[in-house]
Amino acid sequence: MSYMLIELYTATPAWTALDALSRAAFFARIGAGMQHVDPARIKPLAMGPIDQDVPHTRAEQFYAVWQCNERQDADALLAAIDATGWHTYFTTTHVAGSAGGLQQHLAELAALPKA
């Protein structure tokens, strides 16, 4: 079973204050950091801006969805992201868990205890 990692993030004032040359240097650091990520174990599935006109959306500006083979791979990815200095420039919320199908998820919801 796969393990999913979803990131929701927004630029900080530190990011918006950076000039183009500093942003390019940061992106080079991101690229170098991602060289250590095993593409057979960690795959980027989708990334982009969050549509703000969707009902019940979040306030963050961007999202990224990663598919990992297991929890340890997601932990390694999070460590690699952190090592780039990402959290200086982006406020991030992480959502993670094992990937399952619709029927499995409905069973998980049905199994929740009564209040």
Describe the structure.
With 115 residues, the chain is an alpha+beta fold. The chain has a single domain, classed as Alpha-Beta Plaits, CATH 3.30.70. It has helices spanning 13-16, 20-34, 71-83, 86-89, 102-110, and strands at residues 3-11, 42-49, 62-68, 90-98. The protein has a 4-stranded antiparallel β-sheet. The longest helix has 15 residues, at 20-34. The two termini are 31 Å apart. The model has no long low-confidence stretch (mean pLDDT 95).
Q: Could you give a short description of this structure?
A:
With about 120 residues, this protein is α+β, with helices and mostly antiparallel strands.
Summary tags:
single chain; 115 residues; alpha+beta; Alpha-Beta Plaits; 5 helices; 39% helix
The major beta sheet can be summarized as: 4 strands, antiparallel
- Rounded to an integer, what's the Rg over CA atoms? 17 Å
How many domains? Answer: 1
At CATH level 3, the topology is Alpha-Beta Plaits
Task: Report the mean per-residue pLDDT as an integer.
Answer: 95
Task: Please list the strands of the largest sheet in the order they lie side by side.
Answer: 2-3-1-4
Cα separation of the termini: 31 Å
Order of helices and strands: EHHEEHHEH
Please report the number of helical segments. 5
Tally the beta strands: 4
CATH architecture: 2-Layer Sandwich
- Shape assignment: globular
Name of the top-level CATH class: Alpha Beta
Give the helix level as a range of percent: 25-40%
Estimated structural class: alpha+beta
Task: Give the strand content.
Answer: 25-35%
Query: Which quaternary structure do these chains form?
Result: single chain
- Please mark out the parts with pLDDT under 50 across 5 or more consecutive residues, or reply none: none
